[in-house]
Amino acid sequence: MPPALVWVLRRLVLAPAVITLTVLLWTTLPVTALVTGVASAFVPGWLRPVRLLWVVVLQLTLESVLLVLALVLWIASGFGLFLRRPFFERLHYALVRWYLVVFFREARRVLRLKIETVGPAPDAFPGHPLLVFCRHAGIGDSFSIMYALMHWYGREPRIVLKEMLAWDPTLGIYLNRLPSSFVGRGRAGGSGGRNLEAEIGALARGLDDNDAFVIFPEGGNFTAGRRTRAIDRLRNLGRQDMVDRAEELTNVLPPQPGGVLAALDAAPDADVLLVAHTGLDHFGTLRDVWRELPMDKRLLMGWWRIPRADIPATREERIVWLYEWWEVIDTWVDEHRPVDLPRTAVFARR
Question: What is the domain extent for residue 250?
């Protein structure tokens, strides 16, 4: 779809629709709360319909507030003329951080989630740019990584995301105003792949001391079908050495090295932070959330900092290095399966 049409649909159709739906939910909340409260008596799980209703209302309310503030910032910046200036960039980062903090604090209370870090974390080495290579395990886990980087460690992420996420009006508007890249299907290979690597390299260039370039080398959530297709692609490329390694991975997809290599070349002074996480792997839709409520889950994050001096110099060595680390992450996921919390759990990290 032409970018201009996407711009029109996101700002003139989807954004007003989100705000309208939010207003409708709030005006009918006494009725819907009563209905869901009655329905809770006939549905397994403590107040499951009420909990889900509140999460939806909270999410839409936060998005609506951000959409209104996005319009205010656009006007204040001279109708977009100065929108890319550092002052307005910091304001956008601050609003995204506020959104994540409010949503996660309330969602953890309502859904009973506990987020814990296993191993070293970015606050052990502030004041240094980072390249963050993450396991891809669903939008819930991905957002928790952004929450940790921005709220716990004061980082300003530059992120590579799937193009379809740009259809979320709030996410699309804010990330198009911040350093980010939306990757469409089919851009990872052929001539489009080379263009994508150049785009990623440009995004990773010029990181300052509180920046974190974030990319998900797997390119998508783990499924058996994606794993098979990824291994077949490696086999078609004649990379039997990588096929043998990929076939040993049971929890993660074989990483696609193009974006990682481009980022390493573009940010030669940045250390690497590898991130694994588990706990919300299978939450991709509201149906998944509904099925698990109350969740009572513990979400674990594993962090490994790799000093720049320990990263190989040549392209082929870096590909092998990346696969070796993805084997470590695969084993880590096996060893840190989601754990149900006791009913009296006390939540960490406010």
Answer: 3-340
Domain-embedded: residue 77: yes
Mean pLDDT by 10 residues, the chain (350 residues): 72 92 97 94 84 92 97 96 95 97 88 76 74 83 84 91 85 93 61 74 94 92 88 92 92 94 96 86 62 68 92 95 96 78 39
Q: How far apart are CA 103 and CA 101, in angstroms?
A: 6
Q: Is residue 196 part of a domain?
A: yes
**Angle, CA of 135, 137 and 213, to the nearest 5°:** 45
Computed over every residue of the chain, the mean pLDDT equals 85
Beta pairing partners, 278: 300
Of the candidates 90, 79, 104, the one whose C-alpha atom is nearest the C-alpha of residue 174 is 90
Report yes or no on 347 lying in a domain.
no
If you ran DSSP here, which 8-state letter would residue 165 be given?
A: G
Q: What is the pTM of this model?
A: 0.88
For the chain, what is the domain count?
Answer: 1
Following DSSP, what letter does each residue of 120-162 receive, concatenated?
--GGGS-SS-EEEEE----HHHHHHHHHIIIIIT--EEEEEEE
